[in-house]
Amino acid sequence: MSTITDSETRNTRTSDEEAEPSDYSLSAPIQFVGFWTAVALPFLYVPLLATGLDTPGQFQTFLILIAVNLAALLLGHRYRAKA
Known about the structure:
5 helices, mainly alpha, single chain
């Protein structure tokens, strides 16, 4: 039977610690862009919905905007601005 030593306990990380991006990671800028795209993209819905979704092109554009917004939400949902 083996026991866990203090050094092994200090070396173990929780899943949150492993998921946080390092300072030199490429995921931090991707999360930044995803987050702010998800914030800004709904403003494009307003003129589209104000004029109506009468044509198939307008409806297709609306669906594409929703899909891009969902993708941006997925990419940016772990973004945390460091103040």
